[in-house]
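Anyone? Bumping this.
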Amino acid sequence: MNASKHKVMNSPTIRRMPSYLHWLLRMQQIGKKTVSTTELADYMKIGWIVVRKDIALTGISGRPRIGYDISRLITAIRAYLGWQEVHTATLIGAGALGSAILGYDEFAQYGLRIETVFDTDTLKIGKTVHDHPILALSKLPDVFRQNPPEIAILCVPAAVAQSVTDLLVRHGVKSIWNFANVTLNVPEDVIVQREVIAGGLAMLSVKMKNARGAQFEIED
Amino acid sequence: MNASKHKVMNSPTIRRMPSYLHWLLRMQQIGKKTVSTTELADYMKIGWIVVRKDIALTGISGRPRIGYDISRLITAIRAYLGWQEVHTATLIGAGALGSAILGYDEFAQYGLRIETVFDTDTLKIGKTVHDHPILALSKLPDVFRQNPPEIAILCVPAAVAQSVTDLLVRHGVKSIWNFANVTLNVPEDVIVQREVIAGGLAMLSVKMKNARGAQFEIED
């Protein structure tokens, strides 16, 4: 790695970007051209200083009394996240969580194209969830032979998450969005983003504690 | 607020706490008494300096060559998150996402007790999801009259999220864990934690960009 290119970034900023994008796309749809820091702060329920720091990271600066150009800001956020190009994905495990993710229609706007869905449950295979046909996991090697997807969205039970991961890696998947509550062992060139649903509950709990005792201020 | 009591905290640390807790509880179950920073760092896939900083925030310090006492660390993390006591909750919206959350059996260990589940879909009302009977949303005022739950887990479509929130607030709910992709307007004394599923995708995307270009280092 080239040390001179290093920028240390904060994950809360990255996690906020889709919310900015969501709102900016809606504003663009209704014909709005510019947006102020204050409007963004109101929507995000965070301080305007935080908003300004977030936006500055995308390389965009606002103009006094005019604010940010919405169209340029959308482009900058997409570039910042690498969402200006399409990323192909597969989803493994069409249970409740998998179905919820397949129903999330904003992913298309974020450049995520879920091309295949796999499960091992014979009752599910052959059915569709949100227009995605569910394929047998045993077919995965054949389906991925030509062109494996970039991302696998892992929605399987924790007990089988590692063996499914091994299968995915063996067939060329390089990035895993892991919703199973387990740490995955992968080769060094495979990227894993682990989602821990209880992380949000932890945030809420600390805010509740804060409200009772005024002990903490959370920087998020 | 008493400024002298202020501590500014980092949300990534708070979000990581349930993962530490998850692993420590498992280690305790198999009879392990102590854990080293290195073991925790290996499990979490983060640097040991980050682990040490995280743990220090709970007020626990390790002993050289012995590490942390697992039982004390579990107690400290629970205290840090306010999870040593039970928090009552209701879940609104028993669709795919709501069902996934109801199936997450670790919440009990985190002190979250989901007491009621509401929906407006007459096909769902009267059925059960993971042993929770689904009640008609119209019954909510009666059910909450005596003793409203502390937390509402909001899994309804974005279009109705604000009206359901107004109903919840009117009936005494003070904390909302919001999975609807929308900003909620609430009175000042009501706490909202918004979950944005695409936030995790943003993290994964930046890591993928990083791997390609070595431009960024994410601090998470």
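Late reply, but here is one note on the structure posted above: Confidence is low (pLDDT under 50) at residues 1-8 of chain A.
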